[in-house]
Specification:
Mean pLDDT is 85; it is low at 93-101. The longest helix has 9 residues, at 34-42. This protein has one helix at 34-42, and strands at residues 3-6, 10-13, 18-22, 50-56, 64-70, 76-80. The radius of gyration is 14 Å and the shape is globular. It has one helix and six strands. It has a four-stranded antiparallel sheet with strand order 3-4-5-6, with no helix packed on it. It has a two-stranded antiparallel ribbon with strand order 1-2. Helix content is 9%, strand content 32%. The chain is mainly beta and 101 residues long. Bound molecules: zinc ion. Zinc ion binds next to loops.
């Protein structure tokens, strides 16, 4: 069982959270052409490695938390507020995820 550090509630059990998707893409782009909307809604990557994700704290404050998680080991390097730029202390994070080292 994993523990996720909610910025509002503190460290809580993973069972209180629900995965909500990739935090590196806009889930509902407005004012884009049909092809761009199709790509945003239906075409998603399946990265292996460090990934920036949205998690919803459904069993707590019901707010969205930004999580930097490794998709193979499930290790969580950082968590933060939705508008926060996460900085990993592991040094494993690539620039392609929009996260500074
Ligand atoms: Zn919370």
């Amino acid at each position: 069982m994993h523990r996720i550090d909610c910025p509002w509630c503190g460290v809580r059990d993973e069972a209180e959270f629900q995965y909500q998707g990739d935090a590196t893409v806009d889930p509902a782009p407005i004012g884009v052409d049909e092809d761009a909307a199709y790509r945003a809604v239906y075409l998603r990557g399946n990265p292996m490695g460090w990934h920036l994700e949205w998690w919803h704290h459904v069993g707590g404050c019901r707010r969205f938390v930004k999580v930097l998680r490794h998709t193979a080991s499930h290790e969580i390097a950082a968590t933060g507020y939705p508008d926060e730029e996460l900085i990993a202390e592991t040094g494993h994070v690539g620039e392609e995820q929009g996260v500074r080292r």
